[in-house]
Amino acid sequence: MGALTTTGAASAKTLVVSTGDRPETQQYLTFMLSGEVYAIGILAVREIIEFGQLTEVPNMPDFIRGVINLRGAVVPVVDLSVRFGKGETAVSRRTCIVINEIENDGETQTIGVMVDAVNEVLEIPASEIEMPPTFGAKIRSDFIEGMGKVEGKFVILLNVDRVLSVDEMSELVAARSQR
Predict the structure, then answer these.
(1) Residue 40, number of CB atoms within 10 A of its CB
(2) Residue 8 lies inside a defined structural domain of this protein
(3) What's the total number of domains in the chain?
(4) Which domain CATH number covers 115?
(5) Contact status, residue 101 vs residue 44, Cβ threshold 8 Å
(6) pLDDT tens across 120-150, in order?
(7) Quick check: is 62 in a domain?
(8) Which GO terms describe its cellular component (predicted)?
(9) Is 59 left (phi over 0), alpha (psi -120 to 50) or beta?
(10) Is 37 inside a domain boundary?
(11) Residue 70, exposed/middle/buried by CB under 10 A (0-12, 13-18, 19+)?
(12) pLDDT in tens, 74-101
């Protein structure tokens, strides 16, 4: 059920209606990865850039393809296909890097994700989002936020904070360096 709150000065109050955890309609950026359609919430996306020069970093997990220079900032690039236990993304003319901003312990982290191709931004009503499957998915279930129904087909909605968990990736880097 929604909650009502008022904000502002006594002479100019604003009524705010909260509909719970999820707004009625959310926007998602859809993209292709190994022949499947995935989506992430548009609020996490900062920008989309062409795949360009990556600098490889030694002793990183396989899913970290390298880093890029984004206007002077070093940004790690994750190959989502490898992160999901599939093969490396083959670079083509449609390959893109989606730059995401995620929150980690109160700090904003910028991380790029390598995808086969970016499709479009879709608005998906909350009523058209189902709970993630508990089994049978080709990726870890904690990576899936839900299943969006779009024109009779399902789109896998990713939990970008779990997929790009800085803490989990740091643990993997530390474990690899101890080998």
Answers:
(1) 24
(2) no
(3) 1
(4) 2.40.50.180
(5) yes
(6) 999 999 999 988 877 655 678 788 999 999 8
(7) yes
(8) cytosol
(9) left
(10) yes
(11) middle
(12) 999 999 999 888 889 999 999 999 999 9
